[in-house]
Amino acid sequence: MKNGTIWKDIDGNDIQAHGGCIIEHEGTYYWYGEHKGADNCPGTTRVDVIGVSCYSSKNLHDWKYEGLALESDKNDPESPLYYKKVLERPKVIYNEKNKNFVLWAHADSADYVYGGIAVAVSDTPVGPFKLLFAKQPNKQDSRDMTIYKDRDGVAYLAHSKDWNKTMNLSRLNDDYTDVDGFYVSILIDQEREAPAFFWHEGMYYMISSGCTGWDPNQALFARCEHFLGKWKLIDNPCRGEKMETTFDGQSAYIFEANDNFYLMLDHWHPNDLKTSGYSILKIDILPDNNLRVNWVDEWKGI
Ligand code: GAL
Fold first, then answer.
1. What letters, b where the CB count within 10 A reaches 16 and e where it falls short, cover 224-238?
2. Which of 51, 210, 286, 293 is the residue whose CA sits 20 to 30 A from 83?
3. What ligand 1 atom has the least distance to the C-alpha of 19?
4. For the whole model, what pTM was predicted?
5. d(CA 89, CA 52)
6. Number of domains observed in the structure of the chain
7. What percent of the chain has pLDDT over 70?
8. Percentages of the chain per state (helix, strand, coil), in multiples of 5
9. Which H or E element spans position 145?
């Protein structure tokens, strides 16, 4: 699979799973993302919402389409899933207590003014997920977001707020189905979005992008010894050609496989979003706790 391009599933169809995440469950990897497999609305940089797609794989290379895990609503303009709205960056987390899967996504109005999240649940990884609600978490705006499960099993919604100026880490309830009211604000006025997290040997890391819409910009990594501590932006982890534009991509998620951490990127094509590409790149953790992401031409799976 050539990094930076759109990839094919095992049936030869384009993989439509943008802004996504990869999780592992019982020996199978599941890739969720935005299905953007339609033409842009004429003269715009949007595709009507189709839903959240799900793909499965054993080796992170050969992906089988499992269908839409969460489908848009074509009829009810009041529904958060109405196809003329926005549903982006879906993230799925497994809840050990309830033995179910919880999907969080950026849910917005077509003009991105609302700024909220949608939450849906399913007993199986492939869905169909059932929408619980959409809202503004802790009554604050929420745009780019991700879900992170800490090592103690407590999970958090990380979301850009105050029109992307600052980021909130908002704790979830035990069911992972809502925020529980506790949050901290980090990277205040640093204007970061597209956050992706991991932990390694006593340190939490976040890779994020700047805020330039579909246009690529420089990634930065931040780190902190405590998840709810004072996060600090450190440096651009990317090296090589196009390192200043994240290889013309934007962070989507970080997953762990075979003791390595991998960064998923989207390579957006705003004028034809369905052709937007993907990359998966290994993250090197240097002895001084700095991160390096080097470009490689191909993703070969594991
Ligand atoms: C980006 C964001 C994408 C999408 C896009 C719309 O900044 O990361 O997920 O919302 O803006 O312009």
1. eeebbeebeeeebbb
2. 210
3. 9
4. 0.98
5. 9
6. 1
7. 100
8. 5, 50, 45
9. strand 145-149
Q: Which residue is closest in CA terms to ligand 1's atom 8?
A: 194
Residue nearest to atom 6 of ligand 1 (CA): 213
What CATH number does the domain containing 45 carry? 2.115.10.20
Q: What is the pLDDT of residues 40-52, one digit of tens each?
A: 999 999 999 999 9
Domain contains 38:
yes
Ligand 1 center to residue 288 CA distance, Å? 32
Domain-embedded: residue 9: no
Amino acid making up residue 120: A
User: What residues make up the domain containing 49?
Assistant: 18-294
Q: Tell me the pLDDT tens digit for each residue of 162-177.
A: 999 999 999 999 999 9
How much distance in Å is there from the Cα of 36 to the middle of ligand 1?
13
Residues 144 and 193: beta-carbon distance below 8 Å: yes
In a 3-state reduction of DSSP, which class is residue 290? Answer: coil
- Mean pLDDT of all residues in the chain? 98
Report the alpha-carbon distance of residue 247 to residue 234 in Å, rounded.
19
Rg of the chain on CA atoms, in Å: 18
